[in-house]
Amino acid sequence: MRKIVLTCGLIAGAILAASMLIAQAFQDRIGFDRGVYVGYGAMIVAFVLVPVGVRAYRDRVAGGHVTIGRAIAVGLLITLVASACYVATWEVIYYRLAPDFGEKYAAHEIAKAKQAGATDAQIAERTRQMADFNAMYRKPLVNIGFTFLEPLPVGLLFVLVTAGVLGRRRPAGEVVV
Q1: Nearest alpha carbon to residue 83 among 16, 137, 37
Q2: How far apart are CA 32 and CA 58, in angstroms?
Q3: 169 HSE (CA, 13 A, CB side)
Q4: Which of 69, 142, 144, 172 gives a 20 to 30 Å CA spacing to 85?
């Protein structure tokens, strides 16, 4: 199981990391608003490896049958490995390659509020909120926590669907040899 989880998880993680690095390189062209679509699109592509891994586990290790619980466990482990790669890549980008990301994002959000016709008081409040968030986000553990929350829901969705489709109970009386 370890080989399947690591192989699928690391491939999915490489897809997530590569997409994040590419998106960061073209951030000025992509923009913050469209970057969300690029990021979540890459997550969908990467997490296709969850059903691939669960199926490989079912066919190669579990003798053609896998329970829903075991399918969830294998899929969740793949998701956690891939998400750890995503987080590690973001930490390098945030602290080394783009240390001004928070300020750029705050400026984008404030400009968006102005464009939407926000009052001076609303803009001042949004500016304060972004400053507070940036101060909090500079803390590595907070940054890691928020970053893990980005791919996890997508991965969990894939895990649950995969477990529902591929997970089966063993027929009564069947013995695994």
Answers
A1: 16
A2: 40
A3: 3
A4: 69
Please give the DSSP secondary-structure letter assigned to residue 151. Answer: T
Per-residue pLDDT reduced to its tens digit, 76-135? 999 999 999 999 999 999 999 999 999 999 999 999 999 999 999 999 999 999 999 999
Rounded Cα distance between 163 and 157, Å, is: 10
Report the C-alpha dihedral over residues 127, 110, 91, 1, rounded to 10 degrees. Answer: 110
Gap between the Cα atoms of 100 and 16, Å rounded: 22
C-alpha closest to that of 150 among 61, 59, 96, 82:
82
Cα-Cα-Cα-Cα torsion 35, 36, 39, 43, nearest 10 degrees, comes to -170
The tokens describing 20, both together, are 């994040």
